[in-house]
Write a structure and sequence with these properties.
- This protein has one helix and five strands.
- Strands 4-3-2-1-5 form a five-stranded mixed beta sheet.
- Helices cover 12% and strands 35% of the residues.
- It starts with a strand and ends with a strand.
- The chain is globular, with a radius of gyration of 11 Å.
- The longest helix has 9 residues.
């Protein structure tokens, strides 16, 4: 895939799901899995990858998850 969506971890929503945003914060994505620990950056790589594989689009940090986003479309920015 030539065009990947760059995202960074923003925090957690009220349901303890990881929320990600593009650098300009115009697009938001959210995991449908619960965060196993409040700090995404301190999670083992396998847990971070599992959350990135469960991303769905959403209309805002507190919005409901929408459509799944293929993992190969997402580029995580540490």
């Amino acid at each position: 895939m030539s065009s990947r969506i760059p995202v960074h971890f923003m925090g957690m929503d009220g349901w303890d799901r990881a929320v990600f945003a593009t650098p300009d914060r115009r697009r938001f994505f959210k995991s449908v899995e619960l965060m196993p620990h409040p700090d995404f950056h301190s999670l083992p790589e396998s847990d971070r990858e599992a959350l990135l594989r469960s991303l769905h689009d959403t209309d805002g940090p507190d919005g409901e998850p929408g459509w799944p986003v293929p993992r190969e479309a997402v580029q995580w920015l540490p």
